[in-house]
Amino acid sequence: MKATEEGDDMTSNIKDWRKEKYIPAMKAAGLKEGDTIIDYGCSVGNYTIPLAQLAGENGRVYAVDTNSAVFSDVRKRVRKAGLDNVITMIPERGYRLDIEDGTVEGFIIYDLIHFLKSDGILVSVLSECRRLLREGGILSILPFHLSPQEKEEIWRIVEKEGFAPEGVAERVGLHFEMQRFYGYESEDISRYERGDIKFFKRKR
């Protein structure tokens, strides 16, 4: 994992990071209050919480994971944050979601794309994403565990499946795998690996 570089302007406090870095980046990409957002591969809810804060009381976030054991942590965090707009969900057949077509504004895939590719279901998940997103909806991907060449291959697949590149939030993403070492409740993110969040827009 990479340590914080000297002079880096990334806050070391997770609450400030949500407010000052992550949520503004998602708003700049086009997501807003009242939106429906899917956190695909939510794990314990590190990104679910700021997404739910962004969506607000008139929006909702689906926290999706194949491992239902993580949902107790998600619900605990949701309650602690004073939120009530998060719905936990297990995908059917490994990827399909029981959500109506074209009713979602944002689809989030963070630190998961390498698993989807290695498991051979990347195209299936992208097809499901395309089914759920409204025209112009945002697909947001944060990749880790991939070489530059592997990332470029992923981007080619994403574009082939009907998504147009929309921009990058450089070094805004955090690799929360570091929680294995610091514990789930750690507020100090100064040593977390950073990553670029890529945005794509659903084409017609």
The CATH class turns out to be Alpha Beta
Percentage of β-strand residues = 25-35%
Shape: globular
Structural class: alpha/beta
Tell me the CATH superfamily: Vaccinia Virus protein VP39
CATH structural fold name:
Rossmann fold
Question: What does this 3D model show about the protein?
Answer:
The protein has 204 residues and is α/β, with parallel strands linked by helices. The chain has a single domain (14-202), classed as Rossmann fold, CATH 3.40.50.150. Helices cover 33% and strands 25% of the residues. It has 7 helices and 7 strands, in the order H-E-H-E-H-E-E-H-H-E-H-E-H-E. The chain has helices spanning 14-29, 48-55, 71-80, 113-118, 122-132, 148-160, 179-182, and strands at residues 36-40, 60-64, 86-89, 104-110, 133-142, 163-174, 194-202. A 7-stranded mixed β-sheet has the order 3-2-1-4-5-7-6, with helices on both faces. Helix 1 packs across helix 2 (48-55). The chain is globular and about 40 Å long. Mean pLDDT is 90; it is low at 1-8.
